[in-house]
Amino acid sequence: MTETVPSRRRRGWRDWATDFGLFALAAAYGVVWLGILEEEGVPESVLFFEQILGIVGLAAIWFRRRWPVGIAIALIPLSSIGDVIDGAQLVALFTVALYRPVKTTLLVAGASMAGFATFLVVYSFVGPQPDEPLGVVVAFNAVLTFGVVGWGLFIRHRRQLVLTLEERAVRAEAEAKLRAEQSQARAREDIAREMHDVLGHRLSLLSVHAGALEFRPDAPPAEIAKAAGVIRASAHQALQDLREVIGVLRAPVAGELPTPTLADVHRLVTEASQSGSVVELRSSVSGTVPDGLGRTAYRIVQEGLTNARKHAPLAPVTILLSGSPGTGLSVEVQNPAAEASAPGAGSGQGLLGLAERAALAAGRLEYGPTADGGFRLAGWLPWPA
């Protein structure tokens, strides 16, 4: 059992009230015994000695918090030869039970009983015989001693229970705060991932058309107007997507981020085709794809198209979708080697985010260059039957 150490802080009003209360009880106990001894006709010298012992015991009460075991042991021989000091001895024993382990408390209580019994045995040979039987006196002292010990242990365990409940409350509050912070961090990661996926796709479209205008300033007015229209529409859509994501971020209550499904892959293909890219979609999916599964597949296709526009803008892109309930959903985006590569290189954060998405969905993601110099992005996602 954990030891309870007396507090070394300054005593509060409750501590002072407790000390004065115990002091008053010990003093009242001593006064009662002095009255009993006077009625029994005890000599004045013995009464004076008892009073001195009582004063010593009452003085020791004020130091019991700092040295509970030492004070209790020091009072054992004094309480064995005197009656008035017994109240102070009981207070010291109560303090031991309150602040020290049960084993230590029982040892001190046993020493107190042994000292009292030894004194009675010796006194029975050298002094007058008591009115009560020796066994009754010992039993009364044992009941009084272990009653005080039981009271102290009860208060001790009650305090420990209160401290344990307080620690649990503090720990629960800290865990709740940590869970809230982790939830906020996950929400921010989701928002950052959505911003990367959505804006990366839109901005790649803008880059393709802006590059076309830059490299072909002599294009026919109709083509320039068409490219400018696509740029304007893509920029407008990018702003709309950004507003949706920022709106979720600013909302006082967490809202839902835009959640595309697998059906929106056709819209991605249409947008890419309108930008001048050659995109072929082959789908052999049977059954209704769950929204969560379709959203992850959509992001894989979106990232594949975005990377193809960045690094191989003139290469055709093939998208393969296949799967059924029980066998899983396969998504593959591939393109051959490009005749001309776009300048610059990406950070790879999009692919890392996709790998994390697939792992969270209990799937897998593979990506890398192919033997012919192209690039392949493939993912498999579990689809329960």
UniProtKB/TrEMBL annotation:
Pfam families for this protein: HisKA_3
SUPFAM superfamilies, alphabetized = ATPase domain of HSP90 chaperone/DNA topoisomerase II/histidine kinase
User: What InterPro entries has UniProt attached to this entry?
Assistant: HATPase_C_sf, Sensor_HK_TwoCompSys, Sig_transdc_His_kin_sub3_dim/P
Keywords attached to this entry: ATP-binding, Kinase, Membrane, Nucleotide-binding, Phosphoprotein, Transferase, Transmembrane, Transmembrane helix, Two-component regulatory system
Does the record bear Transmembrane helix in its keywords? yes
Reactions that this protein is recorded to catalyse: ATP + protein L-histidine = ADP + protein N-phospho-L-histidine
Keyword Membrane in the entry? The reply is: yes
Q: Which residues cross the membrane?
A: 20-37, 46-63, 69-99, 106-127, 133-155
Tree of life domain = Bacteria
Q: Which CDD domains does this one have? A: HATPase_UhpB-NarQ-NarX-like (cd16917)
Q: What molecular function terms (GO) are annotated for this protein?
A: kinase activity
Q: What is its EC number?
A: 2.7.13.3
Q: Where is the Signal transduction histidine kinase subgroup 3 dimerisation and phosphoacceptor domain?
A: 188-252
Q: What is this protein called?
A: histidine kinase
Q: What organism is this sequence from?
A: Tenggerimyces flavus
Q: What is the lineage of its organism?
A: Bacteria, Bacillati, Actinomycetota, Actinomycetes, Propionibacteriales
